Please model this.
Amino acid sequence: MGRRTNRDWQRQLEMLLREAAQTAKGLSGRGCWPTEWRSAMPDVVRDRNEAYGYVSASYKPAPPTAQQIDRFDEIANAVSSCGDLTDTRRNLIWDRAHGVPVKISARRLGVSRYTLWREYNKALASFGAHLIACNISNKATVQHRRVSAA
Model:
């Protein structure tokens, strides 16, 4: 109905990137266990703080569906093929998608949080323009809406 604002578009991009990051977490795994078991088992206790319950155990996400893997491939290829993104901005996009706090990312890059937010907004803008140019955004958002509505 109404016109999409820049903030709506940014939220939609962040949602797609966050879903791609969750899919990547569900795909990765180590060891010799089958994927179904690996995602259901808690992490191995390596620290006494975890063993005695001082720190809560983290569980791996469920294995992703085929549609999620397809969307992940599209988004990951789009991020890597975007010529406007430097390696720093690419890493910044994935850091934010994985939920790394801004303070930690800023320390890692050696800049202030405000500079980091400016760089992140510039990175999202150039990534959004790349998605529009490649006509990937319409397919990915339509598929995302179908899955989230089900």
User: Anything to note?
Assistant: The chain has one domain: 9-28+62-149. The two ends are 23 Å apart (CA to CA).
